[in-house]
Amino acid sequence: MVTSNMLLAVHCKKTDQVDLKGPISKFVTSTYGTQQAADAADDLAAVQQLRNDVAGLTGALPALRDTLAKYYRALSLMETRFPVGSDSEHVRLTFTWYDSFRPSKKTEQASIYYEKASVLFNMGAVLTQMALAADRGSDAGLKDAARRFQEAAGLFAELRDSASLRVEAPRPVDIGPECAGMLERLCLAQAQEVTYEKARADKKNPALLARLTKQVAVYYDEVGRMLAAFPLSQHFDRSWAAHVGVKAALYEADTQMAAGAALHEAEDVHVEISRLREAQRSLALTKKDVKLCGRDLADHLAATEAALTATLAKAERENSTVYLQRVPAFADLPAITPAPLVRALPPSDLDAAGENFFAGVIPDGSARALSRYTDAVDGLIRQLNDSLAAASDDARLRLREWDLPECLQALDAGTAVVLPEGLRTELEQLEDNGGVGHLHDLVAQIKELRRVAGEELGRVEGELQREAREDAELRQQYGRGWARPASAALNSTLLEKVAGYKANSVAAGESDSRLEARLQQQQAAFSALSLDHAVAQMPRLQAPMVSVGEVEPAAVVATLRQALDAIGRLSAERAGVEEALKVEKNKDNILPRIMAAGGQHDKLFAEELKKYEPLKAQAEENLVKSREVLDVIGKSQAAYKHVFGFAEWRSACEAAAAGVRASLSAYREVRDNLSEGLRFYMSLQEAIGTLSQQAGDYALTRRLQRDDMLEDMRHAGKAAAQARSAEDERAARERAQAQMSAMHLASAGSGGPPPQAGGPPQGYGAPHHGAQPPQQPSWPPQAYGYAPAQNYPPPPQYYQHQHPPPYGGGPGAASKARRQPHLEESVSISAPMKVQVLEQLGGSESTTAAPIWASFCGCSNGAWQGVQTAFSPVSGEPEPLWQDAKGRAVTELATYTVEERREDGGAILRRSVKAASVDALRQAVTTEHNEAVAWTEEEEVCEDEPGLVIFDGGTYSRGPARLLAAKDAALAEVAAERRESLERQLNLRLDVSTGVSGAAAPASTALDPDEHDQEEGPVIAAEADVGEPAARQTVMVEQCCAWGGEQRLRLRLTLSVGPGESELDIEVLRVALFREAWQCLAEADAEACILPESGHGAISARGGRPCPADLAGEWKVLDATGVHATEADPLSSEVRQLVVYYNQETRQRWKRGPGAPTDEGGAFWLPGGVALELRMVAAVSRGAAADAQEGVDLDHAGRGFVVSFSWLVRDGTLIGVQREYDAGGKLLEVRSRTAVRGGWVGGRM
Questions:
Q1: What biological processes does GO assign it (predicted)?
Q2: At what angle do helices 295-318 and 269-284 cross, to 10 degrees?
């Protein structure tokens, strides 16, 4: 107890240090998870610091009070999240606190409620100390002291009514409800005492002062009785009871003295004497207790007694000498009514709803409570909205039934409501479409389309005729050597189509002329089809000239207008109430209050729902008014229609509208005919476009065939000439030998010396026996080889529509025939397509949200049935995968794949079974340990797998994030430097040995063999030492294109990758293709999910191969790109990998490559509409700053590598996945592509 000028303050409770962070962090990890524990780490550290400050009781009193309040709020948030107790499932914490009034006595409890009650006690104690520290010598100091005592009383009342009741037994006395109640009354007594001091300083009248001091005495008397009762009587020192007893007697005496002063002014001295004697008696009873009080109080008591004695003596003297009245007994005097001017102020800063501690840790109980409250709010709002919507619907239906407000607007001249409803709607639509001007626009469009069609047909016909003329000229030039089918026999079908289209266009032009003539005839009638002209032809609704009834027309109209205005205002008010309900619900964040309530939710819910009461009352009032206004409208509209003859007027309007309807019917007929003509010409344009493309492909193919044929003939002619020259030379030698032989024979017959024994050597100057004469060369040379027509691919059959097999499950592949096949459809491998970006659409690149892993798993989850095929990287033809029971090669394997998400959610488990047939597959799936099973695969696709990039809908790309390790790239650079050095040495030695600088040695110059070996030996040995910089690595890239959620293509590309001098050395080892269709959920019956052999065609890998011409043209391309990036956590500084996504839309032109694969790459054209492109791409600058940061030198940078996997799902629609690496093998980005054929081609979009 601390006294200051006779006022008391309470000492704070002391406590020992407690480690909160460790046990609570362990509990959060085991209960909520590691991530939640990491999120709560900073909050735990802050709460631990608050607890340390509370235990130290450091700082100024206001700061200490704020620290205590903040710690109390943190405890309220921890109460619902972290149960503190001795059970194994709870947070094991023990709090130790010492008694405020007996500091040697301490209590330990494993209860957060004990901690909260102790903190609440200290908050009240600090406020009493702040009240004592206030300067009561000033008016502001008196007010501050009174307010602090009232706030302390509120805290002790909260401790008594709530906090202390939740403390476990045995409950410490100082925080028990008895002590808390006593301290509340003590603080109120001292607050009333300070209020009295201010009133006395303000010189208030004695009667008021008597009532104020009476309340002080009452408060102190109550405190004394509480201290005298158990258990406080055995816990508090006697000085407490003595102090409050003396204060009660003192203020009782002050009450009587102040009342006596008021009586003295009223000259009731005899009553004053009775009250003063009672005051004297009260003070006499305190003689014993005052010895236990402080000196200030004893001095104040003595001064009061002296003043009382003097005042009583004066009053008795005046009464005995002047007034001579009898002194009444004190018991007969009226009691003085106390005047309490203070009250316990409820604490305002204990609500934890505004704190952000442990926001990420939400217990199940709070979540359920929030759900209950949300359901209650939603139910209330739904009920109100339903009633408001029903009122709006009822008003709308009844107004429509009564023809309001249209029947009232009919009184106004020139309004469109006078027209019948259907007619008015048609005229409004006609005007919106442009009226008669729309018909003229259609005519102009038809003329333009007819003109374009004629020009395009002329162009196609000219191109076909020009190609035929070229073929005829070459045929005439080379004669029989020009051994290919004549163009006149091949292009007849195309020319017949051109002629047919021309005839159709001529017939359509005649029909167009008739329509134009009819339009000119009815130009005037069609021009009159407008709202204003139609309204002018309608009769007017007018009031009767003489009113014969009791109802006045003007009054009916006025009443009806007012009621309609009122119903409009009420409708707007209902919309405002609905919006207000929505706004109130959006800002209704009750979760923090639920977390701080500690389980007392019902009372909180009832309090929170009260904020919706004003809106509920407003809605109910609106409904009542709406019903009243509708009743008025119903009566008024009936009177209105009767007085104005509305029914007769409406019949007259219907009759007047007959002419307008006839003109509308004729207008619609002409418009429909013109629209049909427009559709005809658009279809004709599309057909002409297809024909133009066929003719262009035909002409291109014939030109390529012509050029190849001319080139072969040129090479054959050169070879034939060389053969003839060699034959002539051989024949000349033989003739010379024959002449020599003839000369020898002639000399022998003319008497020359006989031949030597044995004769000349055989063959010397004479031909061998049996030698054949030289063969004359044939003409034309066989090397030309163009006579057999079967050596050429057959010409395309343009005279019939051919529908290639479906691409294998692509949507619409079987229902809509693709365009005519090309002469090059048998191509399996070619150069990659050439791509030109024409423009960027839709602005610049825009970032987008990353796909959600759970959604991606949902797209892949289930059973997939399909087929697997593999293709040769050399020829692009199918390769055998297995052997069936008869030993025959199988190029298609039936597959059954089940994909399920792991329980932890971070990976997908993929299990596959493969068999030679569907029946074997079904048997393998339904029977364990079946020998017919080809093999079983099991793998995981992890969310954090390096190099994995996913997209919406199930599309993804897998592969290594780096094709080569960093050491391999470094070795490649070292090898390149050594190889360059050796090449320089070798060139230098060659130059020295040949005597030629800067040029190759002449062919006639020969090195000495020994010298050559000596010079070249070290170089060869040095080159052998270089070797390969590192072993090659085998990597696999998997691309998946998903379409419609039920079909997908998976490509597995196996590559051999080695380091080169400046770029990767890549070799394709294997191309595997999986075509799959979703059958059922993973939990479903596996046997029932497998389609029979008859249904296997839907997922067959057989189908036509695309060709470069299928992709040539303009495309509108949408790329969703994922780029790997790193991000540092601002709190933990931990670096994590993530994928950033952005979209880009462009218009591109794709052209076929130069023919065979080149150094820039190649393309595989696989069955089922699949194209696989591997291309080397030059490095692209990403900005000077980015290039410098990444160390990119574009002048010396090698080419990167792109794997592009495309699926032509239907004619004009392509999806694909592209994966791009840089020259060092680092993954740059992955693109998911959707392309739609676009651009104008011959008037066709």
A1: protein transport to vacuole involved in ubiquitin-dependent protein catabolic process via the multivesicular body sorting pathway
A2: 150
